[in-house]
Amino acid sequence: MFSSIKQFINTLLNIGFEDEFGNDLNQKHVVNFSYIIFCVGCLFLIAVFTFRQMYSITILSTLGLLVALVGLRYNFIGHLFRAQILMPIIKIFQTSILSLFYFGTESGFHWFFVNVIAYALVVFRTDRQAVKYWVVGISLALFLLCELTDTNGLYLNSTDQELSVILVFFAVSFNFAMVINLVISRLKSVNQHLRILAEKDELTGLSNRRKVLADAVNIFADSIINRESCVFSIVDLDHFKKINDTFGHEAGDLVLAKVSAMMASVIRPQDEIGRYGGEEFIVIMRGTSIKDAADIMEAMRRSVEDMLIETENGIVIPVTISIGLAAIDPGVSRYEEILAQADKGLYVAKRSGRNRLSVQSDYQN
Ligand SMILES: Nc1nc2c(ncn2[C@@H]2O[C@H](COP(=O)(O)OP(=O)(O)OP(=O)(O)O)[C@@H](O)[C@H]2O)c(=O)[nH]1
């Protein structure tokens, strides 16, 4: 129930946004949210004061609602600044007229100016400093005016005003909580997105060197603590320089991308693969014996050998890989030593004619 309400609110906030990680999305969400809340507030006022036959507030709130719908539409169709600026204008008008003339300053209605100030601070960034200061200044001045003057409401008696203070308190707090929540959740998802970008190799879509080495450290430590077998493997494309020289750098990139996708499809879900650099890759197979790891890597070697990678001109590029393998040894204390062993295996595989794998480990299980 709660999650479906949250999803509904998210859908409302996201209407009209295509770029999920755009720079100004945070502001757009806050603007959207402010309009939606403003519309709900206007509908509430229309219902209450129509019922009480105080039609001038009904008319005023209906006008506010219509202008808010225009602002909401501006936000949806991409006129962000117009939408941003219209919101505080209608909110300032509504709050001052209702506070000073209709409800009376004792109603506490002018505390909505605090929401306008918070809105301006979140929504107007460095390129709109002047607008921000104007909105904050006017809101502050009107807030102080309402605090210092003592006007009686035309429409609210003192009991109504006491009720109004409570309602305003909850509405202002809710607005605050929602805006903070919006900003924090956006920051979280943008951070996560940036982290994924920082860990991914752009060309191949695999983990980049930093990520795969970080995984190597963690998996190595886990395996040592849990006394589990774990195999590290280094894979290198054969004669890749020749592929670049013969077919061009672009074709070389295509080969790297296709071979990476193939390798990622051959390993098991629990295995890790990442681009170590250039045409070299690391595969980490936790909880795996050296024999099983060798079987997986042999299947990978064969799959790559059987690939038919075609250039734009329809020429098929032959590709093979060489593989070095090493398992965690009880005497080893650093993951770099296992990688160095696997690298030795790779060297042997290259020296023995390429397109093969070589195991460099005494630790059999
Ligand atoms: N197209 C392309 N080439 C790359 C990329 N990264 C590295 N290379 C090239 O990969 C080639 C690697 O060449 P070498 O280290 O001599 O290795 P090799 O030709 O594969 O020879 P062996 O490993 O001995 O079989 C170099 O020419 C690099 O310029 C890349 O992202 N794209």
Automatic annotation (TrEMBL):
Reactions catalysed according to its record: 2 GTP = 3',3'-c-di-GMP + 2 diphosphate
CDD domains noted in UniProt: GGDEF
Pfam families per record: GGDEF
Superkingdom, taxonomy of origin: Bacteria
Keywords assigned by UniProt, alphabetized: Membrane, Transmembrane, Transmembrane helix
Membrane-spanning segments: 30-49, 55-73, 133-151, 163-184
InterPro entries linked: Diguanylate_Cyclase, GGDEF_dom, Nucleotide_cyclase, Rev_trsase/Diguanyl_cyclase
Record EC number: 2.7.7.65
Span of domain GGDEF: 228-362
SMART domains per record: GGDEF (SM00267)
Enzyme's top EC category: transferase
Name recorded for this polypeptide: diguanylate cyclase
UniProt organism field: Marinomonas foliarum
